[in-house]
Amino acid sequence: MRQLNAMVLALSAFAAAAAPAYAEGDPERGEVLFYTCTGCHGIAGYANTYPTYKVPKIGGQNYEYLVTALTAYQSGTRAHPTMRAQGESLSTQDIEDIASFLALEKKQN
Q1: Based on the number of CB atoms within 10 Å of its own CB, is 18 exposed (0-12), middle (13-18) or buried (19 or more)?
Q2: Which of 41, 19, 46 lies closest to 31 in space, CA to CA?
Q3: Angle at Cα 47 formed by Cα 81 and Cα 98, nearest 5°?
Q4: What are phi and psi of 90, to 5 degrees?
Q5: What's residue 109's pLDDT?
Q6: How high is the pLDDT of residue 45?
Q7: First and final C-alpha spacing in the chain
Q8: Could you say which architecture CATH assigns to the domain 22-104?
């Protein structure tokens, strides 16, 4: 019985360590929140008019990168006026949820 308990504990620890990093956020809520972002980040080939800036497609991007980038826009340490304004309106939970949704999406070109 001890061996079985030890094995279950070891497998549980392994499963927790192997779990995707986006587990902190709610991807379904993130999809709803991302709706506002679709106008720029969801249109293939979209570029702002002035200044011309190629907008990256972010579906399939790494969860940690997305959280770091959105948090940097939120705090103002990453400069882009539109993204800073968007980031300032997001809570930490909003950022985690959006990142969870995007990390699950197929990478878009």
Answers
A1: exposed
A2: 41
A3: 60
A4: -100, 140
A5: 39
A6: 72
A7: 52
A8: Orthogonal Bundle (1.10)
